[in-house]
Amino acid sequence: HFALEKAFKISSVEKLRGMKTQIKELKLKINEVEDELVNKEQISIKGLHVLCLVHNVSITYIYGKQYCEFFYGDTVKGIIQRNEKKEHSLLYEDTLLETIKQTHWFIENVQKWVLLDNQLKLVNEKTKNQILHRELDFKPGDSVAINSLEARLEYNRRKLMNTNLFIWVKADLNQLPNGHLKISFEFLEQWYILGYPIFQLADRNLNDWWSRGHDLNRSIYGIHFIHNNFQGRNEKLTIKAETGFTQRLDFTYSNPYLDKKKTLGLSFNTSYSTSKSFPYKTRNDTLQYLTDEKILRERWAGGITLRKRFKFYDFQTLELKYTHTIISDTVVKLNPNYFSLNAKEQNFTQLLYTYSYDFRDLIAYPLRGRKFDISINKVGILPSDHVDFW
């Protein structure tokens, strides 16, 4: 009977060396197919060649009438027949072969696949592993093509970097004794708690501030506090407190991963601000300011944002926001049309939809890639709103 070693060419053996694949049932399976085909006088035994044998997945290719047999472990999946016109037909029904047929798979395009080990190692300190797994397009137990493995690892490394949780990300690949591959990622996490002072001029620009006497009382100062990766799930907590020319307090919390599939995110924010000096009208293209010991303008605002992530690079967000503003009687007397005729309050609700496609190599400092955004904003969606426009 024919020997298995004759079925391998030297170049094929060298490429597969170190894989240590199991072939104990291969000979038996080949015999079964061989007997069937020889009885039909369709092939000769000498034309049998094994093209690929990796991790219990084998493909046998028979010249003459040209048959392909697929194995997975100890199970024969089926046989594909190909004629001289390279037309394929199924001899045995199988889900795998149906998939191959639908994708116009040809024997000349056989790629070698390797199985990822069950230990997908993610070395980090605070970030939860499930957040990192969300960015990867493979998981333990998957089979990946060898010839595209390096590029695929680089794409996944970039996606991990684009979470903005790490200073650097390194991918490592090791081959195990059983021929499987173990992929590990190592990270240097950022400093997630940040706080920095705020100082800005209340006027539109430096010239405007200088023309008004360059008084430091016309400045805004405070502190901005940010806690990224709040509980290791890429949440973000932001608190901003300002005082001086105006007083303002902002609070924002976002969680990009609410569901098990890590596709749905939610964030909300609220703010409160007061002003004892603000521009109430214009004269000759110049802002006229009003100053008082009492609060002249008071504003509350709040919003909630729902984000849906499709695959890796597509995002859709829907934001609902409400704003309520009150001005003093003094402002109404000096400018009755500040809002509308003698109105002291203004309320409006806005709804914003945004679609974003972001395929950049590095979001912080992109060198190549593409980004596309489209937004639709409706201000004034309730009958009681005082503002209505798109």
Q: What Rg, in angstroms, do the CA atoms define?
A: 33 Å
- Report the order of strands and helices: HHEEEEEHEEHEHEEEHEEEEEEEEHEE
Name the strands of the widest sheet in spatial order: 11-12-13-14-15-18-19-20-21
Q: So what's the overall shape?
A: elongated
Largest sheet: 9 strands, antiparallel
List keywords for this structure.
390 residues, 15% helix, disordered N terminus, single chain, 7 helices, Ubiquitin-like (UB roll), 5-stranded antiparallel beta sheet, alpha+beta, 9-stranded antiparallel beta sheet, elongated
Structure commentary:
- The chain has 390 residues and is an alpha+beta fold.
- It is built from seven helices and 21 strands.
- It is elongated.
Brief overview, please?
The chain contains seven helices and 21 strands. The chain is of the alpha+beta class. The strands form five sheets. It has a nine-stranded antiparallel beta sheet with strand order 11-12-13-14-15-18-19-20-21. Strands 1-2-3-4-5 form a five-stranded antiparallel beta sheet.
